[in-house]
Every structure is written in structure tokens, then in C-alpha cells.
Write a structure and sequence with these properties.
Layout lengths: L1 H37 L1 H21 L3 E10 L4 H16 L3 H6 L7 E8 L3 H5 L8 H7 L20 E9 L5 H10 L2 H36 L4 E2 L6 E2 L6 H24 L4 E3 L6 E2 L8 H34 L1
Antiparallel strand pairs: 1-3, 1-6, 1-7, 2-3, 4-5
Helix pairs in contact: 2-10, 8-9
């Protein structure tokens, strides 16, 4: 019985404490509204001053602009390109003006760079044969999210197209060109381009030569003639000769030649821009609006100082009462 009575006393005490806290907050809110109503002229003046000052700064400030550049990376140089972009972004953040001048970029013209892959599942699948189980093993270890599969880190070297986001301080039309030139003019990138371009042309020439030979074989077969050996003295007769397989091989090579010729068009540089990027003004939120921001800051400082003054006077009064 006594324990129940103690529990009731404790609950009543807690309820009373919560009630007092709630009433105190209401009282403070009422005092705040009363203070704002009494000082509305000062607050209005501060809002006007803050808006005017923010408007002046906003008009004199160079707005940030952003360009999304769709680039194609050739000759398996994805990792090298990402390293180059990270290096340039680091130099921009460090304001290394000497480095930027050497590569032809105006100091403070670029504020940030970000390179991300444009994920295409078919590019991943093309790297593996249909019966290759390695793809299944890799995909099992890839993290899944609610929105998308986290494939960017796992297969980053596979993707051909990537998005380079360049943020500039104002209108710097040559920022895009200078950034791409910096990447392509790297000594290692130039070597990769030279070797890769030569190999691509040689492989294309080999496929075209093979297609010519296949056409010759098919023409000879259609005329009912035997196939000549390289010495032109021995006739070759293959009982297992399959026209169907030869035609399938020709179709396969034609598709490869078509793809290689397209790669040659984009293969003049390691990094090629495949869209027409334009610098557009970066969209900002309400807080980024300096007219609103400075108005809020000025009013907040005034209210904070008023609160400190109120707290000081309150503790001063308590101290005077205690001293009596």
C-alpha cells in the first residue's frame, strides 16, 4: 500500500515538473512575441538593411556556372584519366596557380571537377562470354541499394562514356577545352593513344583482308572450282568445308569492322567530347540568396543580443535579491 502511494507521488511530481516546463516555454514564447511586436520597427529596418546589403553583394558577385561534358575514354585509359582529373581537382582546391598557368588554365576560373561513369549494363555483359561464370560471381559481390546497383566502382574501367562536371567561377568558356587538353597532353596518355590507335588500324586492316579472302572463297565455291593453295600448283579440297560457318564468320567480321571504323572516328584522342556542353548558371536555394541570408543573419544577431541582455538583467536581479 505504501509502495503504491510512493508511486503516485512520483508520477504526480513528474507530471507537475513537465507542466511547469511546458508553461515556462509558453511564457518565453509569449515574451518573445511581445518583444518582436515592440521592436518591429528595428527588425524591419534590419531586414531592409540586410536585403540591400545582400542585393549589392549579389550583383557584384560572379555567379558560378556548371557544364556537364559527356566524354568517351578510349584505349583502356579510364583509370589514368580518373587519376588526371583527381590531380587537377586537387590543384584547383589548393589554388596552385603556377600549376594551372602551366597547363593553360586561368587561376580561380575553375572551382571544382567531378568525373563519374555513365553506367551501361550491356558494356559489362560484352566483356564476358555467354557461358562465363565470372560475371555471376562478381555480381554476387556487388552492393545493392534501394535505388540502383552500385556498379560504378566495380566495373569503372569497363565503361566507355563518362560525365565530367566542371564548375567555374563565372563565365570561363575555355575551361572545358583546357581541361580536356590537360588530360590528352599527358605523356602517358599520348603513348597509350599512339599504341592503341596503331593497333586498332592494324586489326581493322586484318579483318578487312580476312573478309576479302572469305569473299574469294565464296566466289570460287559458287563457281564449283577447287581452292588454290598459295603455290598455285596444288588444289585444296576440304570435305568438311562449311559455307554456313563461313557466312556466319563474315557477318561477325562485318560487325566488328563497323564497330572499329566507328572507334577510329572517336579515336583521334584518348578523351573525346561527344556532346556540346554549355556553361549554365548553377541553381541555388533560398539560403544561397544573399538578400534573404543577410536579412536573417542581422535579425538573428539582434535577437541574440537582446536575449543576452535579458538573461544578464535577470541574473543581476536574482543576485541583488540574494544579497539582501
Amino acid at each position: 500500500m505504501e509502495e503504491n502511494k510512493n508511486d503516485e507521488i512520483d508520477l504526480a511530481h513528474i507530471y507537475k515538473a513537465i507542466k511547469n516546463i511546458f508553461r515556462r516555454w509558453i511564457y518565453l514564447g509569449f515574451l518573445s512575441l511581445k518583444f518582436i511586436r515592440e521592436k518591429w520597427i528595428i527588425i524591419s529596418v534590419l531586414i531592409i538593411i540586410g536585403s540591400s546589403y545582400g542585393y549589392y553583394n549579389q550583383n557584384n558577385e560572379v555567379p558560378s556556372k556548371e557544364a556537364k561534358v559527356l566524354i568517351r575514354i578510349n584505349y583502356n585509359a579510364v583509370n589514368y584519366v580518373y587519376t588526371s582529373v583527381e590531380l587537377l581537382n586537387k590543384k584547383v582546391k589548393e589554388n596552385d596557380n603556377n600549376f594551372l598557368k602551366e597547363i593553360g588554365i586561368k587561376p580561380y576560373s575553375i572551382s571544382s571537377l567531378e568525373l563519374t561513369p555513365l553506367i551501361r549494363i550491356n558494356e559489362i555483359v560484352d566483356q564476358f562470354e555467354s557461358n562465363n561464370r565470372n560475371l555471376d560471381v562478381i555480381l554476387k559481390n556487388v552492393e545493392f541499394d534501394d535505388d540502383e546497383v552500385k556498379l560504378s566502382d566495380t566495373f569503372i574501367s569497363v565503361y566507355k562514356e563518362h560525365i565530367l562536371v566542371i564548375t567555374t567561377n563565372g563565365s570561363s568558356d575555355d575551361a572545358i577545352t583546357n581541361t580536356l587538353n590537360f588530360i590528352n597532353n599527358s605523356s602517358l596518355i599520348k603513348k597509350l593513344k599512339k599504341v592503341g590507335y596503331s593497333n586498332l588500324k592494324a586489326k581493322l586492316a586484318g579483318h578487312k583482308k580476312t573478309l576479302t579472302q572469305i569473299d574469294h572463297i565464296l566466289d570460287t565455291y559458287s563457281e564449283g572450282q577447287s581452292l588454290h593453295s598459295p603455290t598455285e600448283q596444288i588444289f585444296v579440297v576440304d570435305k568438311n568445308f562449311s559455307v554456313h560457318q563461313l557466312i556466319e564468320k563474315k557477318i561477325e567480321l562485318l560487325e566488328k569492322v563497323k564497330q572499329m571504323e566507328q572507334n577510329l572516328v572517336f579515336g583521334e584522342e584518348v578523351v573525346v567530347c561527344v556532346n556540346r556542353p554549355e556553361l549554365t548558371k548553377v541553381k541555388t536555394g533560398i539560403i544561397s540568396n544573399k538578400m534573404v541570408l543577410y536579412s536573417i543573419v542581422f535579425v538573428f544577431i539582434f535577437l541574440f543580443l537582446a536575449y543576452l541582455r535579458y538573461t544578464y538583467n535577470r541574473f543581476k536581479l536574482i543576485a541583488q535579491q540574494e544579497s539582501k
